[in-house]
Amino acid sequence: MSKIAAITGAASGIGQAACRRLLEAGWTVVGLDNAPIRPDAGFAAYQDRFRPIRCDVADAAEVTAVFQEMGPSLNALVTCAGVLRTALMEDMPIEDFDFVMNVNTRGTFLCAQKALPLLRAGATPDNPSRIVMLSSVAALRPKIVSGAYAASKAAVSQLCRVMAAEWAPSGVLVNALAPGTVDTPMVAAVADPAASKGYRPSGVSPVGRIAQPDDVVDVMMFLLSDAARYVTGTTIPVDGGTQAAFIPPGSNL
Q: Judging by beta carbons within 10 Å of its beta carbon (0-12, 13-18, 19+), is residue 206 exposed, middle or buried?
């Protein structure tokens, strides 16, 4: 019997790549997103093991209903749903601040809380269930014009630590990944500083490129594997060394 994962943000970017990789590995996947999941997203060959569900992760009633109907058990939850709004803190509209915090932090919390009974049901002493959250390098090294996003992702990393400690006795491991700049639609939408109020992505990492979604999913697959049975409560940077040390502009590296 295949393992079962629920993945939020399944319509694009890292969430879409995570769905594809787990389906290729033989998992059954429930893909959640507030946007439609396109038929041409690479899932057509897995219709017997892929179930797309429309869900606003910030809506408590929707999230509760989705996980109540999902049962009876889950082996993994991967929370990739996220949004970015940019502005100087003094200029940021309250509506944008609330939107970022509601999707990135509240949505992650709601999905983890409502998935917990299913994850407990799917856990065994030799094979714990897993939660993998998407934090960000912004949680470790915030920058101007994206303060709300950085705060929301720092909160995700702290939720990860507390949930890991509270839920380990019931066989649920909780970890987070902190990507740097990744080639996703969310990043592409703010790539123009003129259109994004001066915000600039971290850009090319010290290893010489930005990440592809599969670079992040590679580490996610480790956290979902038997090799990570003793790993919980940590945020792992997947950023090509972006936050490791400051490289001044014009350096010869």
A: middle
CA dist 190 and 211 (Å) reads: 16
Q: How far apart are CA 100 and CA 82, in angstroms?
A: 8
% helix / strand / coil in the chain, to the nearest 5? 40, 15, 45
Cα–Cα distance measured from residue 248 to residue 246, given in angstroms and rounded to the nearest whole number: 6
pLDDT at 34 over 90: yes
**Residue 243 DSSP code:** T
- pLDDT the model gives residue 118: 98
Residues forming the active site: 149
Q: What is the pTM of this model?
A: 0.93
What average pLDDT does the segment 44-59 reach?
A: 94
Handedness of CA 223, 46, 7, 68 (dihedral sign): negative
Q: What was the pLDDT predicted at 198?
A: 64
- Furthest CA-CA distance within the chain: 56
Kindly tell me the sign of the dihedral angle through the C-alpha atoms of 164, 9, 92, 150.
positive
User: What is d(CA 178, CA 128) in angstroms, rounded to the nearest whole number?
Assistant: 22
Nearest CA among 228, 11, 48, 55 for reference residue 131: 228
Residue 249 has a pLDDT of 75
pLDDT tens per residue across span 136-146 = 999 999 989 99
> Torsion over CA of 94, 95, 98 and 104, rounded to 10 degrees?
-130
In which band, very low, low, confident or very high, does the pLDDT at 248 lie, cut at 50, 70 and 90?
confident
Residue written as token pair 């936050």: 243
